Amino acid sequence: MSTPTTADPDGSLGQSTAIEHLSDRAIPASQTAEESTRSTAVTTPPATAQKAPPPEKPADILRRTSVILSFWAIVLCLGLPIWWHTTTIHKATLPLAQMSDWANGLACPPQYPIYVQLAAPNFAPEDYANLLRDTQASLDTLNDGPAGVKLRLQGPDDSSSTSAIESKVAYQVDLELGNELHAFPHKDKPRLSIQFPQSAARSLPSYIAGQLQNVFREERDLVRYYLAHSSIPAERLGDAAKGAVMTDSHLAKRMTRTLRYDPTFHLTISLFTSGSKPSAWDIDAAVAEHMQPVLDMLRPIHNFTIDTQIQLFASPSVDAQVLTKEHLSQFVNAAEWPLSPSIGGAHTINFVIFAGDQIISTDGSAGESWRSWLVPQWGSVYLLAPSSEDYVTADELKLPLQKFTSHLLSLLGVPQSSSPALRLSTLTRVRAIDLMLRASSSLGSLARLTHALPSISIPESVADSVARSIQHLENACANLGTESSLQHAQIAEAEAERAFFEKSMVGQLYFPDEHKIAVYLPLLGPIGVPLVMGLLNEFKAWKKRRSEKLKAT
Question: pTM value?
């Protein structure tokens, strides 16, 4: 039974009645929170739920795929060919096997014959033939083996003596009857006269062979030296390399002062004085009388240009009256003396005359002394006795110019044989084989460099120089022992050097692969990553569409 309620005059329930009513309908707090939470969970949608995007239209997929593929088509069909064409290293074809053969001495045997004509009018034809055979056999036993100088005897009436061989005859031996066995070399021509008694006819072949060996000993030693210091393997040289070891001690000093072969040399003759006198000299007459004949003799091998100068108040770097060997290297005052440099590409040889009171002592005292010395690969210096005269005559210049001429021959590597003609022919042959070995060594170095650096650039000019060098080497080898051989060898050496030191090719030696990575990576990284990632994403989307299509079917 319900309890009646009483209303207040203002129409509201009484306070006690309202509280009592609410207490009767009270709900536990935990139940109320649980119900409110359940109600919220039911009525509120989940926050993480997202609305699925609408499916792409086929036209949009095709457009996106076309854009990605168009970028890749531009890169592959246009960018990559242009990059390949502009960055590909051009490598001209080189005859590497032939170049290596020249360097190893396989293309041309490292030897050449020296033809000697044997004249014996007092011998019967049969005896003369036996003499030629026996002398040649004696010479062959003294040969060095597969390399070096080979002496070949030729008779004046030999049917095998063609004009080509006769032009190569370098020496002549005349046999004459006499009272004793004796040899007389001619000083003005390449000829040897041998007098022999009839009783010494049996020992004559070995005697002739020994004399010829002495005549050409210096040339044989020089050839041995060049062969031993070449790129040819020692096993191909045989006894020539062993002989070079024996002669190397006395040839090494000589070869260090010898200038490298050059077809043209510039001679500078200078007069320096510490005061105002002398101020003039008769140098033209002195050169014409004492130096020009030697220059004319060397004209077939070298060309010379000459200039002269006088420098007053020029003091040497050493202020001493008695000079020792230690002073000689400091005497030339290069800072204040205007010595002419190389003119027109030709190597300059300096000949300096200093008018002063210095002398060069041999033992540190003023006793035994001399007045000139040779500077290896540079020139010569002569100390002229001081004079109160203003003019130096040609007679006073005789000794200095004679010394300069002797030093010039040493600087050019002229052999010291007695006959001028023989010295000239020997120098021609020795220089020819030296240049051939240098050219062959350069070709071999270029071949090894090409093998070692596959990425090196080889322009067409290098291939042309190599072809010309090999052609002239073949001509020089075919004409060894003649003047034409020297001309071909000089061209071959110049072309080989030009090919090896080509500027555009040498620059590749200092451009390693690490530099290429450093150049390309900053450029290709920002471009390549978007292209690759775009292609990968499109490929994944295509696989997804394909799998969904397969499931739908």
Answer: 0.75
